[in-house]
TrEMBL record:
Annotated function: Large subunit of the glutamine-dependent carbamoyl phosphate synthetase (CPSase). CPSase catalyzes the formation of carbamoyl phosphate from the ammonia moiety of glutamine, carbonate, and phosphate donated by ATP, constituting the first step of 2 biosynthetic pathways, one leading to arginine and/or urea and the other to pyrimidine nucleotides.
Keywords: Amino-acid biosynthesis, Arginine biosynthesis, ATP-binding, Ligase, Magnesium, Manganese, Metal-binding, Nucleotide-binding, Pyrimidine biosynthesis, Repeat
Any one annotated GO CC term: cytoplasm
Biological processes, Gene Ontology terms: glutamine metabolic process; L-arginine biosynthetic process; pyrimidine nucleotide biosynthetic process
Subunit relationships: Composed of two chains; the small (or glutamine) chain promotes the hydrolysis of glutamine to ammonia, which is used by the large (or ammonia) chain to synthesize carbamoyl phosphate. Tetramer of heterodimers (alpha,beta)4.
Domain ATP-grasp intervals: 133-328, 676-867
Name of the protein: Carbamoyl-phosphate synthase large subunit
Cofactor(s) demanded: Mn(2+)
NCBIfam families: CPSaseII_lrg, PRK05294.1, PRK12815.1
Top-level taxonomy: Bacteria, Pseudomonadati, Bacteroidota, Sphingobacteriia, Sphingobacteriales
Catalytic activity: hydrogencarbonate + NH4(+) + 2 ATP = carbamoyl phosphate + 2 ADP + phosphate + 2 H(+); hydrogencarbonate + L-glutamine + 2 ATP + H2O = carbamoyl phosphate + L-glutamate + 2 ADP + phosphate + 2 H(+)
């Protein structure tokens, strides 16, 4: 059936600010869906309050509403536009909940708007735990024994009937919020209360716990003819008991028998067909008993999910794009396979490789947090890797995490504490994967590890084999490793760094040179969705060690953009936004734009975004070989946050051109001590400071600059390790901790300007002219990390003289640092005196906010300036903001109720929202400002 011609305008509901459990995967889905609908000539409107997303760009939608996700905002949009249909399946649980609320209020009926992509009644069936359970019973799909409870008394009765251990699952919550396992009767009352309060309907499911069972996810698509296909089967490395967002996952499934797989497929299709007549995407989760392969259904999500983005990147099948077309009436056999361009979308992808997803945690930001993993998701991001085998992909994922690991162990960071390791195996946390390898190295038997972790034996055997290989390698020296064995090590995912560490007396560069002598080179394979059965036309690659290389470098002039790796606190979706605009600008300037990144949630890793995508770790060895193959004109590191910036020194040493500001000048800004010396030379005020490399030196510096002092390391992002201290004892502790976690780092000791205001500027420089793109005043005072502070654009209470000083210092610094591209500067203001705290010659988290507030494509402009294609005078910049824009941080403290929520110099927010106000009499602004006034005026 061709598309529904009565639908000419669609509203897509976004997911709002990034929180744990709902991250930038919905930016990817929303962007894909919007572009897919625009291809059909449909007018697309988007509502989302997140300024850091691509989906809230005018390049994606016809009308963008940066409004709070409320029914009042929805009605405003429906009054201003003729909207024919709403698509709520691209914005996660937030969008679905808003869709239900709008439906209950009668908004869709009042404005004659169709809900497409999902059936509202289906949402009710899947989110209401009792309705879901009963539906599964009715259609003959197995479920765990359970009872619904709407009160404390009902919950107690359910527990008495089911017995322990059991699971509490609140209805209508995101990422397992409020849920958890209860192993003992004594723990039940508190857990039940948490679940009931977490559910907006005060309802929980008390369910039999199937601890140790395997967990699987299936991604499905269905069209209006009721055709259903399975896009991807994902197996959890971790058994039941750990939220899928916190679990290592693998595709395709590694340990499924064909009989069990076929049974699971049939049940998933039956489940999708049972929840309404909608056309679109769906995610189904199952648990499988490892003893007899009994299958029970865990849940079904009739929307695009976190796993949908992963499945899209894993298979090359653009789920959100196709789901959007199905929602407007197309059938699967009427749509084209986006990669082969010759087959239809009515096919199931075939993989001739393995993908592994590993979550990224930020427990360091939540001191005192319970790090044990369970039903409530705690990961802040994830990486995905692709390899020919599971173990190759697993090692590549470990290299992608940005946690300082060079692979799965063999890098000098192994634990040798058996008690600690065994506790970690039984009580899973972020490090359990690495501790499994550590346990094998210490000689713990495989069966003991299996009993402690309940992880399938097949996975454990793969990791155990690494220990055998490492013992074999230690028999050799670099110059006599047999070529075949060297090749085996590389095929098992070992980095050159790991091999060097295992050999003890050689360097990473020496290992690299030796394998090049032996002709052991990384080759690139195409992700084609069909295991090479049909030719593919999309340049989407991963690396491995074989003979044939499928990535042929063109003779075009090229630019490589380095991505930001996994999301984490301090480095989030704003850098993906920057990378995407960098790619678009490079293409507009006539370059072949090449993307390197490993984050499956992002728009930058969409195979349609760059001219060529390498889904690879942003890890030196991988980046180096891509550069050697492609021979680009240069590499852009300014847009990928600290991940990309950390490559700059090695790129410089290799003779690779860094596009934009030079490494030398970026390093000058990053080195806090040298930067303060520059400020002194420029006669720019700055807090008194000193540099220390030990606790003893720090005490001397603190005495000179005076307490309170701000203690911070160089070369970090998101305020990592920063603290404010008021005496020698606290200073000594802070410095010792920093040097323990960041050995060899220089520690900067600044005099802290107590009760100062904070502000910042962002600017673009082309080497001659400097354009201030925005100046913001913070609501919170100095001492609160800028990422955790509300910021108002333009400043609302800073005097004209202060703003002039900020502009003067911004221009001075841009010229002194010879900035080509972006520059962010943080200021402290006290008694009308302006002090510079730091400068960052790179994309910042505030640039997307400013770009959205003023409706100016600043990253696009900055990239063209970096490339030397344009000067600032070539652009006519018209700002459209009337009134003020407020950037408001959003936190995920609900995941860590036990931690200190006090804000300080180390960033803790997971995302942000934008709010527009007409004037300073706005009630929301007055409330925020009163808090600031109270603090600044406090005695």
């Amino acid at each position: 059936m061709p598309r529904n011609t009565s639908i000419n305008s669609v509203l897509i509901i976004g997911s709002g600010p990034i929180v744990i459990g709902q991250a930038c995967e919905f930016d990817y889905s929303g962007s894909q869906a919007a572009l897919s609908l625009k291809e059909e000539g449909i007018s697309v409107s988007i509502i989302n309050s997140n300024p850091a997303t691509i989906m809230t760009d005018n390049v994606v939608a016809d009308h963008v509403y940066l409004l709070p996700l409320t029914c009042e905002s929805i009605e405003q949009i429906l009054q201003e536009n003729q909207i024919d249909a709403v698509l709520p399946t691209m914005g996660g649980q937030t969008a679905l909940n808003l869709c239900i609320e709008a439906s209950n209020r009668g908004l869709w009926e009042k404005y004659n708007v169709k809900v497409i992509g999902v059936d509202v009644a289906a949402i009710e069936k899947t989110e209401n735990r009792e309705e879901f359970r009963q539906l599964m019973v009715d259609i003959g799909v197995g479920v765990a024994t359970s009872k619904i409870a709407n009160s404390f008394l009902e919950g107690k009765e359910a527990a008495q009937i089911i017995g322990f251990p059991l699971v509490i699952r609140p209805s209508y919550t995101l990422a397992g919020t409020g849920g958890g396992f209860v192993h003992k009767k004594e723990e039940f009352d508190a857990a039940l209360n948490r679940g009931l309060h977490a559910s907006p309907t005060h309802e929980v499911l008390v369910e039999q716990a199937v601890l140790g069972w395997k967990e699987f996810e299936l991604e499905l698509l269905r069209d209006t003819n009721d055709n259903v296909i399975i896009i991807c089967t994902i197996e959890n490395f971790d058994p039941m008991g750990i939220h899928t967002g916190d679990s290592i996952t693998v595709a395709p499934g590694m340990t499924l028998s064909d009989k069990c797989y076929q049974d699971m497929r049939n049940q998933a299709i039956k489940m999708m067909r049972s929840i309404g007549t909608f056309a679109g995407g769906c995610n189904v989760q199952f648990s499988v008993n490892p003893e007899n392969e009994e299958i029970i259904a865990i849940e079904i999500n009739p929307r695009v999910s976190r796993s949908s983005a992963l499945a899209s990147k894993a298979t090359g099948y653009p789920i959100a794009k196709i789901a959007a077309k199905l929602a407007i009436g197309y059938n699967l056999d009427e749509l084209q396979n986006q990669i082969t361009k010759t087959t239809s979308a009515y096919f199931e992808p075939t993989l001739d490789y393995v993908i592994v997803k590993v979550p990224r945690f930020n427990f360091d930001k939540f001191k005192g947090a319970n790090k044990e993993l369970g039903l409530q998701m705690k990961a802040v991001g994830e990486v995905m890797s692709i390899g020919r085998t599971f173990i190759e992909a697993l090692q590549k994922a470990a290299q992608s995490l940005e946690t300082g690991r060079a692979g799965l162990g063999a890098d000098g960071r192994q634990s040798r504490n058996l008690e600690e390791i065994m506790h970690s195996l039984e009580h899973p946390s972020a490090d359990r994967l690495f501790h499994i390898k550590d346990a094998f190295e210490l000689g713990v038997p495989l069966e003991s590890i299996r009993k402690a972790t309940l992880i399938d034996k097949w996975f454990l055997v793969q990791i155990q084999e690494l220990v055998y290989l490492e013992n074999e390698l230690r028999r050799y020296q670099l110059n006599n490793i047999p070529r075949d064995f060297f090749m085996t090590l590389k095929q098992k995912g070992y980095s050159d760094y790991q091999i060097a560490w295992l050999l003890s007396n050689v360097t990473e560069d020496e290992v690299y040179a030796r394998r090049k002598e032996l002709g052991i080179n990384r080759v690139y394979k195409m992700v084609d969705t069909c295991a090479a059965e049909f030719p593919a036309h999309t340049p989407y690659y991963y690396s491995t060690f074989e003979e044939e290389n499928e990535s042929i470098a063109s003779d075009r002039k090229k630019i490589i953009v380095l991505g930001s790796g996994p999301n984490r606190i301090g480095q989030g979706i704003e850098f993906d936004y920057s990378c995407v605009h960098g790619l678009l600008a490079a293409k507009e300037c006539g370059y072949e734009a090449i993307m390197v990144n490993c984050n499956p949630e992002t728009v930058s890793t969409d195979f349609n975004m760059a001219d060529k995508l390498y889904f690879e770790p942003v890890f030196w060895e991988h980046v180096r070989e891509i550069i050697e193959l492609e021979k680009p004109e240069g590499v852009i590191v300014q847009l990928g946050g600290q991940t990309a910036l950390k490559m700059a020194e090695r790129l410089e040493a290799l003779g690779v051109k860094i596009i934009g500001t030079s490494f030398e000048n970026m390093d000058l800004a990053e080195d806090r001590g040298r930067f303060s010396d520059l400020l002194k030379d420029l006669d720019i005020p700055y807090p008194k400071y000193g540099v220390a490399t030990s606790a003893e030196e720090a005490l001397v510096v603190a005495k000179e600059v005076g307490y309170p002092v701000l203690v911070r390391p160089s070369y970090v992002l998101g305020g990592q390790g920063m603290s404010i201290v008021i005496n020698d004892e606290d200073l000594e502790k802070a410095v010792v901790n920093l040097l323990k976690n960041l050995p060899g780092n220089h520690i900067l000791i600044d005099h802290f300007l107590d009760r100062a205001e904070e502000a910042e500027s962002d600017s673009i420089s082309d080497g001659e002219d400097v354009h201030i793109i925005g100046m913001m005043e913070h609501i919170e005072p100095a001492g609160i990390h800028s990422g955790d502070s509300s910021a108002v654009l333009p400043p609302f209470s800073l005097s004209e003289a202060v703003q002039q000083k900020m502009e003067e210092y911004s221009i001075k610094l841009a010229k002194a640092l010879n900035v080509r591209g972006l520059l962010n500067i943080q200021f402290a203001i006290k008694d009308e005196n302006v002090f510079v705290i730091e400068a960052n010659p790179r994309a910042s988290r505030t640039v997307p906010f400013i770009a959205k507030a003023y409706d100016v494509p600043y990253i696009n402009i900055a990239t063209k300036v970096m490339l030397g294609a344009n000067k600032l005078k070539d652009f006519t910049i018209v700002r459209k903001l009337k009134g003020y824009a407020i950037k408001e941080p959003v936190f995920s403290f609900s995941k860590f109720p036990e931690v200190d929520k006090q804000l300080g110099p180390e960033m803790k927010s997971t995302g942000e929202a934008i709010r527009f106000i007409k004037d300073l009499n706005d009630p929301h602004f007055r409330e925020l400002y009163s808090q600031k006034s109270m603090f600044l005026n406090a005695q």
